Amino acid sequence: HPRQHTLETQLSKFNLTEIEAMLGSYTKVLFVRDPFQRLISTFMQGMGSSPSFSSFVQDVLDSGQHNASMAWKPLISLCQPCFIQYDYVVMFGFFRQELGHLLRRAGLSMDSLLPEFTDNQVRWTYSWLSEEMFSELSLQQKKQLSHFYRWDLAAFPFPSSFLSS
């Protein structure tokens, strides 16, 4: 888009005409990840001050959707997929396959630009980790998390998510 802006400029800082022009001129790619896996990753990176995963989840639930950190805020509220028509949605755990397709569509060589991904290993690790972490939660916390992320779960196909059950 011809208008000069910095990378930190939020879309909300522009008027509707400018927003429509920008969104129409860019290829829009949305990277999505199972919300429960996002919580695990945030906890494992030490971004919460809680001593256990269960207490971290309780802190997340107590913060509510409006006060949630961007690290665990529902994707629907961050990315607005109901209002922005994304050209591509790339699922975590399928990067090599999906990014390869995206690069080919853009006319770029897949081999020269992609780092080595271990998607199968990542999926297995997160499957095991999710099962372990999910077992730490109370039934009430599981229900509250499913409700907290209900719109993400409805908008994106996370068939193996523990929150979908």
In short, what is this structure?
The protein is mainly alpha-helical. Helix content is 51%, strand content 5%.
Q: Can you characterise this structure?
A:
- This protein has a two-stranded parallel sheet.
- The chain contains nine helices and two strands.
- By secondary structure, the chain is mainly alpha-helical.
- 51% of the residues lie in helices and 5% in strands.
- The chain has one domain (11-155).
- The mean pLDDT is 81.
- It has helices at 16-25, 35-44, 53-63, 75-79, 95-105, 110-113, 119-135, 139-148, 150-155; strands at residues 29-32, 88-91.
Q: How would you classify the quaternary structure?
A: single chain
Low-confidence stretches: none
Helical content (DSSP H or I, runs of 4+): 40-55%
Largest sheet: 2 strands, parallel
Write the layout of secondary structure elements.
Layout: H1 16-25, E1 29-32, H2 35-44, H3 53-63, H4 75-79, E2 88-91, H5 95-105, H6 110-113, H7 119-135, H8 139-148, H9 150-155
Parallel strand pairs: 1-2
What are the defining features of this structure?
165 residues; mainly alpha; 9 helices; sulfotransferase activity; Sulfotransferase; transmembrane helix; glycoprotein
